[in-house]
Amino acid sequence: MVRIWHLKRERRMGRILNSHGIVAVILLLAISAGGFAADERAVPAGMIVGRVVDAQLGSPLEYANVVLFDIDGNEQITGSTTNADGVFRLMGVTPGIYRLEVSFMGYYPTIIDTVGVVSPDMGVRLGTVELERAVLMMEGVDVTSDKPAVEFKIDKKVINVSKHYTATSGTAVDVLENVPSVTVDVEGNVTLRGSTNFTLLIDGRPTVLEPDDALQQIPANAIENIEIITNPSAKYDPSGIAGIINIVMKKQKAQGTNGIANANIGLDDKYGADFLVNHRMEKFNVYVGANYRDETYPGSIILENQTTSGDTTSFINSSGDMSWQRKFYGLRGGIDLYLSSKDVLSFSGRYGVRDGGNTAVRNYDEWTEPGDTHDLYISETSMDRGGNYVSLNTDYTRTIGVKEHNLKGHVMLSRRSGDEESMTELFDENGLINYGVITTEKGPSQRLRANLDYAIPVLKTNMLETGYQGSVYRTTDSTEMFEYDTLTGQYEFRPEFSHTIEYDDNIHALYGIYKGEWNDFGYQAGLRGEYTYRFIELIGEDESFEIDRWDYFPTAHVSYKFPAEHEVMASYTRRINRPRGWELEPFQTWMDAYNVRVGNPNLIPEYINSYEIGYQKHFGRNFISLEGYYRETENKVERVRSVYDENIILHSVENVGTDYSFGAEAMLDWDLFKWLNVNLTGDIYDYRIEGTLYGEDFSRESFNWNTRVNATFRLTKSTRVQLNNIYYSPSVSSQGRREGFFATNAAIRQDLWNRKLSATLRLRNIFSTARHEFTSEGSDFYSYMEFSRKSPIVMFTLTFNFNRYRPDRERDENGEDFEEEQLF
């Protein structure tokens, strides 16, 4: 028999409500004795407030349905859904005795038979309502409902990493391949709604490393969830065209000592391991974790280049084997001190060492037209990039009365070193070096970041938030070049291509947000002001560049909840993308024998206006979401190419004009059968870029689309099989075109020993269809590149869970669970 619903234990209030008269007397006496009218946490008149959580995990359930009926359960009085914290508020309730029903897809409903409002001047605080996950009893087999792979909230998408089996033993990049709004190319480069420019946060804090580097290093098994915020509020740093990707790491908070460990191995020299251990006591929580990865990805590469000067065209074609390497390890740990019920002080830190790069051996064919002489030779290239990084964090939270009234402070100090070396050597038919070049880049960087945030409830259901955020960044980069001398057989230093540059980058910001609810209508408006001072100096060359300016960033979010679990949301944000790194270096750097780059210190920031509208509908355990968006980028910055010399391409950056993206995303999560869940996502958008490049007007446009189909088969209670198909369509830039590609992935997961141990076998790019093809051309050059990695990629992972490790329980800002408060 299938159990449809169950009743929770009767609350203290329900046990004493035997008659309306007794109810009124007891309520009034209790309120008077407790002095509740003077309590800062008093509930506004006519309001019933409470919080809905998962009974097992303690985590809040957003969009749970809360319906208030008359005492007989025949007539619906009012209703609402829970917010991101699981909190619901029923307003305008007149005195009386009611029946409350709380439900959420995949959970048993909970019914509170008697809820009493005794006075028009009082409200009711119900405390926490726990919902049990649904378990269907069928022929003696327990089938437990799964948490959805993707959850949609009013301002973000939350990806539950544990449900992406094809990413197990991989990194954050592998998880993002399955995420709406995100695309990942064959090389692991991540784009958010078509842009590689986004802000990456780890546990809500900026990363020390570049986003792509950091995402490649974070093991998927150490991630609790990933938040995609495409239109963030004024509280967040506005840097980045496309928005924010926030990686939320696992951190246990159950009492005692517990943890989780993973080990993985794969074909072609791939190894890895990680662990996380927590020790939780009443007054503190300590955690420590570590991860190690050593992976090699063999593959192949094809390059075709041609340059034209006058009536002569020069050609270079090459092909050969290429291998990508990634090796790194990291440590993280922290302690949370619960100083009181209102104060939490936390210290945390991270340390890591990274080493990655590639090697290639290619056969070259070089010739000119007119002419019929071909020069054949072999090229050996290598690039190694590494260094270490460290970050130290201090956080303090003070809760002032109610949970929503709080003061938070955060300070982060970080440092990283960067060492990069590239070598290219060309060998003639006799195996002798006829050309060689080595370039190196070294330099440490430091950043001090601090923020102070204050939030206070106003006018019963509204909230005012304000704060300060500051960042001070310092770095010194030294670039050197060495060229092979065929006469001496040594590499000679080339000072004309060697430079040292210092950056000072200071940003100070103030923000304010006002948000609230009016019945089923939610609203939020914000404004952020930022002061930027940047000073760049070439040491010993009497050349410097300065930026000194203010910028302003308004944001707006609205939502409306319709009956029957319908919701519509809309938002607007203005963002900025500031040039950085080599994009601002005003000197030439040789990348290899055929490519030179030069920055542009006169670049101006990109400004982005982003609009979104979304719709969600839940039906049973299934849901569908639709999102439309329009994004306009002013002062568009693009990496462009031109001819430097015969067979040599110059890479630079320019403000080329304006680009426009207009598109829609859709997602369907459907339990087609009790043993099969299908998750289908699609993204279509029209991309247009227009402007002026090298004195000539241009306009390019492409219709882009991608789709993902994820099917999860529940073979038994402890066995899951997942199939994943991805397709990315072609796309264009100001000078180039990237071809589309298709990939199929699969995984099987088996839980053992009451889920204390699990084994996962993962196969990626099963049919070897994923490859990278890019074409770039101008009036005097043409370039084509194709590379692919050996596939399929096969990985095997073992996960050991000791002392019942579970994901984070959501907690109050003061470190305490959301407690029931009785009014009686």
Q: Enumerate how many helices there are, as a single number.
A: 4
Average pLDDT for all residues = 82
Amount of helix:
under 10%
Structural class, from helix and strand content? mainly beta
The biggest sheet, with number of strands, parallel, antiparallel or mixed sense and barrel status, is: 22 strands, antiparallel, barrel
Are there runs of 5+ residues with pLDDT below 50, and where? 1-41, 135-145, 807-824
Query: What gyration radius follows from the Cα positions, in whole Å?
Result: 29 Å
- First CA to last CA: what distance? 39 Å
Shape: globular
Proportion of β residues? over 45%
SS elements, strand count: 46
Characterize the structure shown.
Mean pLDDT is 82; it is low at 1-41, 135-145 and 807-824. The two termini are 39 Å apart. The strands form six sheets. This protein has a 22-stranded antiparallel beta barrel. Strands 10-11-16-17-14-15 form a six-stranded mixed β-sheet, with no helix packed on it. It is mainly beta and 824 residues long. Helices cover 4% and strands 65% of the residues. The longest helix is centred in the N-terminal third of the chain and has 15 residues, at 20-34.
Topology:
Blueprint: H1 12-16, H2 20-34, E1 48-54, E2 65-70, E3 76-81, E4 87-90, E5 96-103, E6 110-117, E7 124-131, E8 135-138, E9 141-144, E10 150-152, E11 157-160, H3 172-176, E12 182-184, E13 190-192, E14 199-202, E15 205-206, H4 211-217, E16 223-229, E17 244-249, E18 256-266, E19 270-280, E20 284-309, E21 312-338, E22 343-369, E23 375-399, E24 406-427, E25 433-458, E26 462-485, E27 490-493, E28 499-518, E29 521-538, E30 543-562, E31 566-577, E32 588-592, E33 595-598, E34 606-619, E35 622-645, E36 648-673, E37 676-693, E38 696-716, E39 719-728, E40 731-732, E41 736-738, E42 741-752, E43 757-764, E44 772-778, E45 781-789, E46 793-802
